[in-house]
User: Fold these one by one.
Assistant:
Number 1:
Amino acid sequence: MPRRKGELRREQEERAGIKPRAREREMPAFPRDFVQTVELINHHHDVSLIATTFARHMQKKYGLSNASIEALGAASGTHDIGKTTEPAKRAIAKHGPLTTHRREGMQTHVPQGKRLLRKVWDQTVSDPKAVSKVVGIVGVHHEHWDGSGYPKGLRGEEIPIEGRILGLVDLYCSLRENRIYKTQKSPKEALVIVDYEKGKKLDPELTRDFIQFMKKSGIRYLDPKRLSE
Ligand SMILES: [Fe+2]
Ligand SMILES: [Fe+2]
């Protein structure tokens, strides 16, 4: 009897030593598109919640205005929307570590996201300055402190503070999430990696403050068991 496409893929993955994700074992009936959409919504929610809570905590030290924190919240809650468009969408849907080709596809989510958000908000938001501010933050969320990020290779304080906060929280949340191409880290492991990136991907001072904040805050939003508790 001819084998179905899914069975063949599972056999190939087993031979390659790729373990099926827990999510797939538990929720075989959900289409991939739906799962990706839910993951994106959860990611945006978690990043937005942690970024704005952290920013409020650090408001005085970093001279953040209320408008800045609002813009950060809006940017955090939409920053990866470009991942719903090709070729980023395809790059995310594949198993295993990211190849260079897929990484390049993934990176298009930044300009695509800016384009989408501007298109929607230019028609629905009455304050063009606010739109530009939020879209600007989305545009720098993958810039790195040492200049190794994209799309512009900005470095240090050339990256606006809201973008540095978003990039930092985004990295932490990504480490805490299960994805088709990577497995989740514990809160401790995630903070060790975040700490390692200070002065590289991340603003060193901000990173120190974030680690202290996360250790003290008791934030458990990202505990995958939270829904069953
Ligand atoms: Fe992103
Ligand atoms: Fe993200």
Number 2:
Amino acid sequence: MRVGFGAATVALVVIASPVDSAAPRTICQPQALHDLQRLSPRGYDVYLAMKDKQQFLAFLTCDDVQLGLSTAVHESVHILTEQYDAYPLITGGSVARLHAISRFYPPREIAVAFNRNDNYVQTYLRRGAASSADDLSYLFDELNAYSHDLASATKLVAIHREDDGQVDHRAGLAALMSFVMHYAKTAREDKPATWKGLQRPEVKALVRTLWTQAETVLMASWGIPEFGGEKYVEGLCNRQNGDALAELIDGDTMNPQVCAALATASSGGSLTK
Ligand SMILES: [Zn+2]
């Protein structure tokens, strides 16, 4: 599932109403797939991996092709994750889901640390809203899907049209990274059973793999203006937030140079548009 300011709504309309407008909605698709192959080969790999191409194409609407493609990649990653029982990685291959982590404390318990009206908090952490609110393995599923999503959106900047308007492509991944970071922080502070479980080598390896991929994608997008997510990234750069996760992955949670640049830009007032 992807928080969409437009795309998800359009996709629902396509599914819900079998009207004659289907042709104009899909007319861009051959060129869009060509652009994906040319500009984002890793995103195209996701399309190729889908057995049922219609499941990918259902999300590829024509009003904003950059958003349509990155959303189709995102949703397809979820489908592949279910099929493989593993998280597909951007650079190829996959890492197995660990079902034991479903017994860890439910991610919805960290919602209090965030603005409850935030779209991502509402969608992914609110009780009853999504599997990710109840089960850490689905929070990782979203982290991975948003990594693929932003990786493709970043590569597809060339096909963005001015009249498509601004879409916060970076905000989803930055939000999910913040949730994972706070999940580790809360585990270390208040949830001894989960914190102990997180120390198991295979769990640490999974967290390190998915986090490193996410952080790499986030940083690669950093130079692109109007991709959003600054508020979450500021929190990600706060050492107090990241200490527990840093302990789990045995390294920096965020690129120190980027966080230093962010702090300088913030104090100078030039970070935001
Ligand atoms: Zn999703």
